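Let's sit down with a protein and look at its sequence and fold side by side. Go ahead whenever you are ready, and we will take it from there.
>
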Amino acid sequence: EAPRQRTAVAARVRCCAAAALFRFPARPAGSEQPMALRTLRPPRRDGRSARGGLCSSRLVALDDYHEAQRGARVKVVLLSWMGATQRTVAKFADAWRAVGAAPRLAVFPAMAAMWFEDMASALARQVLRLLLDDLRRGNDALPVVLACYSGSAKACLSEMALLLQRDPEFASLRSRVAGVCYDSSPVDYTSRHGVRFITEQGTASGIPEVVRWAALGATPALDLVFASTFARQRRRFWRALERGVARGWATMLLYSEDDRIAPATEVLAFRTRLQAAGVTGRPLRAVAFSGCPHIGLMQHAPDEYRRQLRAFVLEAAAWQVRREKIAWDATLREAARSSALFRGKAQGDHQPEQPRAHL
């Protein structure tokens, strides 16, 4: 009982500290999502309103999904990087659409979600519930591919993997995620990576200057107050991506040899751990690009980028078919075993009694 109380108190302290540092409303006790979370807010025509802020995440459903899903092999959820605009993410959606995938949803995580797991978990739950609604309608059987860019692996994806693994609400959705494509990701946003991203990519990614200065100023305080908490979160983050349901996902790692925020050495080390922990036979490969900055692979090598996406869509769709066949065969074997046990028990109950010998 005492450890649970300490955990609850620590979570409340994190929320209050975040509220003080970033000036957003603390989450009420018992609520399932931060008050700053805004779901499916329609963007302005210029596409600039649909972006995650310092403490507010947003989801945008793509209007042409139902048209694009005709003939598509998979549907894609785009987990964008912090500060990305809808106009920028739309270019990546077009790339997926051109290779036989149907973009379903664009997710714009809050910057603070990289460090506060409660915010990341609330966002992940919103994404999964939307996918679950699609599944329950009964007319959307496309497997799901998660396209993860930069820090969204920590701001959303890892929490999605944990919820799929542990939460009974999403049990029916667990087997529908076929794969994940990492672009300049995954990045464990320690202070070193976070400051580098904000200073080097802040303007290019659309992060407002006020937000950049606020994040830079808060980083030393966060490190000082939450050093042990962040260390625990990093261990939890990598376990979520390497174990559990993520072990069975088809995986492609797109990275640049010149990326200073998601270094090639860290991406390749992640691939090695996936090879050791993954399910036998699942597609897993890493594709290197040269001379490309962080989140700049498609811009600098569009043809090669689309070629790799097309190959991965085919791999993920084929892997999903294979997984379903394996699961169906296992169900048939279990049914046959149960039937044999039942028949054996029934025959034993109806055997005629042997006559007793008279002495």
